[in-house]
Amino acid sequence: MKDDNISQETNNLISSLPADKDFMGYSLYNYKGCWYYPNTLQAVLDVQDNFRPQKNDIILASLPKGGTTWLKSLVFAVVHREKYRENPQIIHPLLSQNPHLAKFPSPMIFSTHMHLNALHEATTKSSSSPCKIVYVCRGLKDTFVSVDAYCRGVTLYGPYWEHMLSYWKGSLEDKENVLFMRYEEIIEEPLIQVKRLAEFLNCPFTEEEEESGNLEINKKGTTRIGIDSNVFFRKGEVGDWKNHLTPQMAKRIDEVVEVKLRGSGLIFP
Question: Which residues does the UniProt record annotate as the domain Sulfotransferase (predicted)?
Answer without folding.
Answer: 56-265
